[in-house]
Specification:
The complex is a heterodimer of chains A (79) and B (637). Chain A has 79 residues and is α+β, with helices and mostly antiparallel strands. Chain A contains 2 helices and 5 strands; from the N terminus they run ββαββαβ. In chain A, strands 1, 2, 3, 4 and 5 form a 5-stranded antiparallel beta sheet that branches. Among the domains of chain B are: 123-205, Calcium-transporting ATPase, cytoplasmic transduction domain A (Distorted Sandwich); 307-333 and 459-575, 3-Layer(aba) Sandwich (Rossmann fold), CATH 3.40.50.1000; 334-457, Calcium-transporting ATPase, cytoplasmic domain N. Classes of the chains: A alpha+beta (79), B alpha+beta (637).
């Protein structure tokens, strides 16, 4: 469940250990198809995702998690 | 400590003990050379196994250059050079540094959430005459809730019953308690101090003040500042650059020695220097301490009732050079008060108190049906002075004449209260008054009876705040107002603002701010301070829009970049002071970390700094930078 849900913009709780890993997650999320923009806040452990118009956010978030895990296997996104 | 951190700690201890033991054994006896690498490999893999794995994964994912890669190459290289102790030590200290950093970040996360601990856990609702605890989220609008002394007000509402004082410190940072009684609006997040209150909720929990504030604070650091973006860009180019630098250091000098100087290549020496170079250059100190400083700055500010919506605004606040104030509600309280009563019943000499009271009485009675702030100030003054309620039965035939004032029948007299135009209309011989403020003239049965002077009251700390701003590097303070020129100039002179623009419509205020924006240098920041009422366009247009006294005003919280929860202008100076301190620490960390690293890199390249210096340049600098960053939290009150 996203922490906050504003239509195409959602906020998810994440788990990650280091600031640089958070930056890597941010880039991985941004590069995922269906994601318009993403920011990862290491300090509050949150990921804000803005989806492309008409994207299926559940499927997109699965891909986001997959690409994040690829760059940093020690991370988690609570979907 | 989380379980993950505990596991790392155990690995650190085990590896440290093993290395220590090996070291001592080596000093005492001679370990056969073939055995020694195998023995050191045990603690090395215990402490660095995951780093090696991550570095390997990074290479597979074509994201080669990160700190795991740096550490893996440096330590594997050291092992091959038979510098086993150094190899294990680099990994060991790197892990200690990472553990410290993760602990410090977790700790400040908890500290800051504790500072903003305003989330209520439950609401007491009345069901079938009994009080029950319920989840605030499930309380419908209009429900009656009970708040006991010592409890937090969970949801916004109106007080039905009870008198009490409220502690608003968690919201505003202000320690003076606030009084509430039946009929008053009450906002969530305050702590009820003395009496039991029955409150009818006017909002859902999600729409209540407390939720809005938490939401704002929790999402604050998502807007990244230029320094943060600089650091992530920096790290992206920096790490590959030092890797290539290290490669060059390992290969070029030996080749040069071989080819041009005819000397032995000394591969081992140069590779060792290159590895030292790699360890020194690890960018962790910057990558962690900069966002941590901003996080601490925003957290520390919110504990004092200053909500900053993003690190970028914190950065901008620190560079504030122009401050534009709105007058009403910002410099002044926006509450009108009677400051002078001047009866003129035709008698000669000084007016007696009796005549003053009479004038005020007729004015208050004539205006008794109006809710205009001016009328209300008359009614309030009357009730305070006479200590009695207004008897509405004495008033009849009230007629409001738009743009003029009111006429009414009071105790059989025809009373006209209003401006000069009204006096002309009823044919009264009014007296011009030279004082500034809003003047209410009074005529009885067509004859002039005197005037009452009403003025907005300047806030206690307004002057102090303007002075403090000058000390914080603000070059120009400007006041904008829709009010009349004499009033505006008097207020400005009293608080020490030299530049005043008066009689402005809301659109004119935007134009004025734009004119100042056009005239300033790019790096200078213009902050606009308003109370959030009618000035949302200006708040958005300014570099930093600051809304003040925003407790309970949603429009202001939405439009502004910085929200001062209470209406004391001195908070503005405090906000800038916190921002400056935060930015100073950010720059200290940038210069300090890069500076030490550069020095060590040069020493490493020429062979003066060995692996132990490199470990300090990496882990030591990071620990110091993190400690420095946490200092932002402690800003003097």
């Amino acid at each position: 469940m996203p922490l906050k849900d504003n239509g195409m913009k959602k906020t998810y709780k994440i788990e990650v250990d280091c600031a640089n890993c958070a930056n890597k997650m941010e880039e991985a999320a941004k590069a995922t198809a269906g994601v318009k923009d993403a920011t990862v806040n290491f300090m509050t452990l949150k990921m804000n995702v803005e989806f492309e118009e008409g994207a299926d956010h559940k499927a997109v978030m699965k891909d986001v998690l997959k690409s994040c895990k690829r760059v940093e296997d020690d991370c988690e996104i609570y979907l | 400590m989380s379980s993950k951190q505990k596991k790392v700690l155990v690995r650190i201890i085990v590896a440290a003990v093993l290395v220590g033991a090996l070291w001592i054994i080596e000093e005492l006896t001679v370990i056969p050379p073939f055995l020694s690498p195998a023995l050191y490999l045990i603690p090395y893999l215990i402490i660095g196994g995951d780093i090696l794995k991550k570095a390997g994964k990074g290479i597979l994912n074509r994201q080669v250059f990160d700190e795991n890669f740096l550490m893996a190459v440096a330590t594997v290289g050291a092992m091959f050079l038979r510098e086993y102790r150094e190899g294990v030590a680099v990994m060991l200290f790197y892990q200690i540094g990472e553990l410290f950093q993760s602990y410090a970040v977790g700790k400040s996360r908890r500290n800051i959430s504790a500072l903003m601990d305003i989330r209520p856990d439950y609401a007491n609702i009345v069901r079938d005459g009994k009080v029950e605890r319920a989840d605030p989220d499930e309380v419908a609008v209009g429900t009656v809730i009970v708040v006991q002394p010592g409890e937090k007000v969970p949801i916004d509402g109106t007080v039905l019953e009870g008198n009490s004082t409220l502690n608003t410190a968690a919201l505003t940072g202000e320690s003076v308690p606030r009084d509430v009684k039946a009929g008053d609006e009450i906002i969530s997040g305050c702590i009820n101090l003395s009496g039991v209150l029955r409150i009818q909720t006017t909002r859902e929990f999600g729409e209540s003040t407390v939720s809005k504030i938490l939401d704002l604070v929790e999402n604050a650091s998502s807007k990244k500042s230029r320094s943060e973006n600089f650091i992530s860009r920096f790290a992206r180019y920096y790490t590959p650059a030092v890797c290539y630098g290290a490669l060059a250091l390992a290969v070029l000098p030996p080749l040069a020695r071989l080819l041009f100087m005819g000397a032995p290549a000394e591969w081992g020496v140069w590779i060792y220097r290159a590895l030292t170079f790699l360890v020194i250059s690890c960018p962790c100190a910057l990558v962690i301490s900069i966002p941590l400083s901003f996080f601490a700055g925003i957290g520390g500010a919110s504990a004092q009732g200053i909500l900053i919506k993003g690190s970028n605004y914190l950065e901008a606040l620190a560079r504030t050079k122009y401050v534009v104030f709105d007058k009403t509600g910002t410099i002044t309280q926006g509450v009108f008060e009677v400051i002078g009563i001047h009866p003129d019943f035709g008698g000669s000499g000084k007016a007696s108190a009796k005549e003053e009271n009479r004038l005020l009485m007729y004015a208050a009675l004539a205006e008794c049906h109006s809710t205009h702030p001016i009328s209300q100030s008359l009614q309030r003054a009357y009730m305070q002075r006479m200590e009695e309620k207004i008897d509405l039965s004495r008033v009849s035939n009230v007629e409001e004449i738009s743009g003029h004032g009111v006429t009414a029948q009071v105790d059989g007299h025809m009373v006209a209260a209003g401006n000069v135009k009204l006096m002309k209309r009823v044919g009264a011989q009014y007296r011009e008054c030279g004082e500034t403020g809003t003047v209410v003239h009074l005529a009885m049965d067509g004859a002039y009876a005197g005037y009452i002077l009403i003025s907005d009251v300047i806030k206690t700390h307004a002057r102090e705040a303007v002075e403090a701003l000058a000390g914080l590097g603000v070059q120009r303070t400007v006041m904008l107002t829709g009010d009349a020129k004499p009033v505006a100039e008097r207020v400005a002179a009293q608080v020490g603002i030299r530049e005043v623009h008066s009689e402005l419509l809301p659109a004119d205020k935007v134009a004025k701010v734009e004119a100042i924006l056009a005239g300033k240098k790019e790096k200078e920041v213009l902050a606009f301070v308003g109370d959030g009422i009618n000035d949302a366009p200006v708040l958005t247009r300014a570099d930093v829009g600051i809304a003040m006294g925003a407790l309970g005003s949603d429009a202001a919280i939405e439009a502004a970049d910085v929200v001062l929860m209470d209406d004391d202008p001195i908070k503005l100076a405090k906000a800038i002071r916190i921002a400056k301190k935060c930015m100073r620490i950010v720059y200290e960390n940038i210069y300090f970390a890069i500076g030490i690293k550069l020095v060590c890199l040069m020493l490493g390249a020429v062979g003066i700094a060995n692996m132990w210096v490199a470990i300090f340049a990496d882990v030591g600098v990071m620990v110091l930078a993190v400690l420095n960053a946490v200092r932002v939290l402690f800003c003097r009150k």
